[in-house]
Amino acid sequence: MGAYIIRTTLFKLATLFIISIVSFLIIHLAPGEPSQIDPLNPRFTKEDLARYRAAFDLDKPLPVQYWRFYKKFFTGELTSLKDNQPVFGKIWRRFLISLPLFIVGTIITWCLSFPLGIAGALRRYSVFDRSTTFMSYLMISMPSFFLAYILIIAVVQGFTLPLTDYRVPGLEVSVLGIETFGRGDVSPLFRINDRVWHLVLPSLVGAIGGIAVLSRYVRGQMIEVVDSDFIRTAHSKGLDEDTVNYVHVLRNAALPFVTMFGLILPGLIGGSVIIENIFAWPGMGRLGFEAVLARDYPVILSLNFISAILVVIGTFISDVLLVVVDPRIRL
Amino acid sequence: MLIKRILLLLPILIAAALFQSYFWVPTFSDQTKGGSDERLRQFITGSIGDAQILNPILHADTASGAIVDQVFDGLIDRDRDLSYRGRMAASWKIYEEAFFVPHPEGPGAEALVERIERARAQGGAKWLENVEKIEAIAPSEQKTAIRTPPPKGGKKPGKKEILIAYPERVKITLKSVDQDLFKHLEKFLGEKWVAKDSASLIKTKLPEPLLPFAARRVKLTEHNPIIIFKLRRGVRFHDGHEFDSGDVRFTYEAIMNRKNLSPRVPDYEPVKHVETPDRFTVKITYKRLYSPAFGSWGMGMLPEHLLNAKKLAEEAKQKGKDPKTFSLRDSAFNRKPVGTGPFVFKEWRSDELIRLARFEDYWEGPPEYHEYVYRILPDPLTQEITFYAGTVDRYGAGAHQVERLKKDPRFQVFSGLGFGFTYVGYNMRRWPFQDARVRKALGMAVNTKQIHRYVLNGEAEDITGPFVKQSPHYNKKIKPLAYNPKGAVRLLHEAGFRKKDGILMKDGKPLAFNLMTNHGNEIRRAVGTVVQDAWKKIGVKISFTQVEWAVFIRKYVNQLNFDAVVLGWSMGLDPDLYQIWHSSQTNKGQLNFVGYKNPRADDLIIKIRQEYDLAKQVRYAHALHSIIAADQPYTFLYVGKWTALLDRKIAIARRLKSGKLQPEKIRPTITGSYSFDFNEWLKFPAVPRFEN
């Protein structure tokens, strides 16, 4: 185990180093320049543009830029080109905003996928199974922005039931942003619940795609295990149905999902651009997106590198978790 | 079975926990009714993007501009009719000091002064009446530095100090700026009035190739326009500190400080120096005639007492940064600005909202609204929904929505023309675009009405030249090119083109070229398609390509490597067209990329930027407009219209003597700007009815 940890650490450090070079090159190869440098602004002279480039180190050769960038990254001195704010402070504030969305979304995804998948597997080809399968594919195919729009309009303004004249009234409440806008001082209870309410729609929209995929996955795994020999043995031992299904089948079917747990980690930093944009959440996804639009290199590269680090850590955790839960595997 | 129960119960519990929160959330009507007084005194506006930097000398994006305009005040601004209006400047005066070096073989400065004085005493010429004072000034020396080409093997250009020795000069103070003064003088004093050899005044020994560069620094004649601002007394910053001339000088110096990387540098580069004769007087001297510079004093003024070198050094120390590299750009001020404007900065939650409160001590009296909130709503559809729900007061309608929303009784509608236009530009260095007839014919073949109707849902108008259509500089007498494909073919025939197999040919060459625009702009793509179709119909062999923006600009436009482009300019109200239309700006990377060269246009462009008298400037602009319209270097396609919706309950609140508030209809300015009286706006509990 000790040797394994040392080996993988070294290997992963090398991976990170390569990622840092590649992502740095890709950003600089991409067309465009930081929005502060606008070559089409009729009032900028060549000297002005040169001054900007020099201030942002953009006039130096790439290796020098690379060295300076990562030196600042590791000393925490990196500042955004847009507003000269420290990059890590910016990322941290946005992280705290995206975090609840991520947590609630993940909880919904995992808590719904398992019951759905298991039920589908146990009642294979029943009406329930077929309709969840249908819904899953529908949800996988539906773009999340479209779903988000439909949900917002339906919830806020209401909708007319298809094929009838019956109008379902809208709820006429705020669903955008992280809390109801313009509410003065209210008791913490109201405030907390208000924030929870504002989590419902975006996390639901974010989770739906995940539920659709994950529940299919669970169903597949369950079916695979149900058909195996040791389950037949369990049945023939005379164990009752529930024990077989929830102890023997589920435990074995759940193994691959343990590894998936580690891979959720990078999702922490990504945020969701589309959902945060539509629901006006000032989170990580928006930060990254705006940074890309403005070619704010320090923010883009920092987000990229941090998520690379998280991927590496995530895979490591997955590996270790698998060893813990599956005694057959040894490192 | 425990696991089974957990698996079933958990989702139900979570759903219950989430959905119960609905009962704690206020509905929209609760929000607008309950505590309604507060909501009526609040103006909420939505924006797609967040502000970047709340500093009048540093920001370059519209969102920051919107906030900065509320928090900061300038010395002047534009009145309802676009003339200048004093804000923090109570009054101003513009005059001129001019200098010239007399011809060495002439009678000398003293004698020239005497001659002019005598003529002035006799009266007569108008330009002489404009002379306030004339004197000979003693010889003086001036040190300045020129840039030299990089030394062998090096890359950075060098610097060389030179010494210029001016002999006795004549100084003339004028009551108002006169760009023709030296022409009058030449007429009056004869040919040998001014020295011609600038190189002889340079006292430093220079190698031959550097001489012409140094000679350019010698000013044999010099116009120095001067602006004197008298500042309003008793104007206070939000922290109570009184605003004075020191703040104006500080703001200017902050812009020119290279460390701050201010994008405003080009506006203030023509300033020679800023002086403060007393606490409430600012004297600005310019290096040369440049009338657009006046408008730059509408920029927000910074508080010196919060941002001077000492304060910045303290801040740097506190943050553990090197005071030498710490600039205004790094200061926390940019996230919590202090100005003299009608609203005080309160709170900024990144990508969520910016909150301002009214400034009780505002010099013009506090605004009616107590709060100004800038919400960031990045998605157009959610912005629309929040507007309908009443939690945003203003909405910019898209062209496709105007038809529908105009009729909505809940809203009041404002619309106007944008400051900009879309055009097809021809590369006049290439065959066959050198011929004005070809350019005109191509323009005549395009039905612009069709573009307005089908591409822009009718939300556009014709434009015939390069000025803002609502400004006095725009020549309204010029008619747009009429759509006439037959006439276009006739004109091309005149230019020597003959149809062969449906394609126009001249000297065995087909009329074939490529039209380009950038990717990602749907409107430009559609415009390009319409134009392509129109040209095909008259027998032009035309291809249409789209390229990613940065590549398009760098590889094609800046390298002058294109036949024709669909592009747009957004403009300011200022009529200075130097960079886009002057013949000196046709090199690679410059903005006259179509290569338009017309000596008469050049002359007018220079005259316009040197003219301080609006009536004369307008006359020059009209002449320039008609020259450009005749030359057709661009086919001017359209100027877009914008439409904004406001809640109908918002109106101007006039305070009557009785203390009552009387609603008055919001009246837009001549450019269509409806927020001119924003400080008097208020939301009334019900839709107000207006008298008369």
Description of the molecule:
The complex is a heterodimer of chains A (331) and B (692). Chain A is built from 14 helices and 2 strands. With 331 residues, chain A is an all-alpha fold. Chain A has a two-stranded antiparallel ribbon with strand order 1-2. In chain A, strand 1 and strand 2 form a beta hairpin. The model of chain A has no long low-confidence stretch (mean pLDDT 85). Chain B is an alpha+beta fold. Chain B is globular, with a radius of gyration of 30 Å. The mean pLDDT of chain B is 90. The longest helix of chain B has 19 residues. In chain B, the strands form 7 sheets. In chain B, strands 15, 16, 17, 18, 22, 23, 24 and 25 form an 8-stranded mixed beta sheet that branches. In chain B, strand 26 and strand 27 form a beta hairpin. Classes of the chains: A mainly alpha (331), B alpha+beta (692). Chains A and B meet through helix 2, helix 4, helix 6, helix 7 and helix 9 of A and helix 1, helix 2, helix 10, strand 14 and helix 13 of B.
Rg of chain B, Å, rounded: 30 Å
Describe the biggest sheet of chain A? Answer: 2 strands, antiparallel
Alpha plus pi helix count of chain B: 22
Number of strands of chain A: 2
Q: What is the general shape of chain B?
A: globular
Taking all residues together, what is the mean pLDDT of chain A?
85
The rounded Rg of chain A comes to: 25 Å
Beta-strand percent range of chain B: 25-35%
Mass-distribution shape of chain A: globular
The largest beta-sheet of chain A arranges its strands as: 1-2
**Helix and strand run of chain A:** HHHHHHEEHHHHHHHH
Question: Gap between N and C termini of chain B, in Å?
Answer: 79 Å
Tell me the β content of chain A: under 5%
Q: Counting H and I runs of at least 4 residues, what is the number of helices of chain A?
A: 14
Which pair of protein chains has the largest interface, and what are the residue counts? Answer: A-B, 72 and 72 residues
Q: What class would the helix/strand composition of chain A place it in?
A: mainly alpha
Task: Characterize the biggest β-sheet of chain B.
Answer: 8 strands, mixed
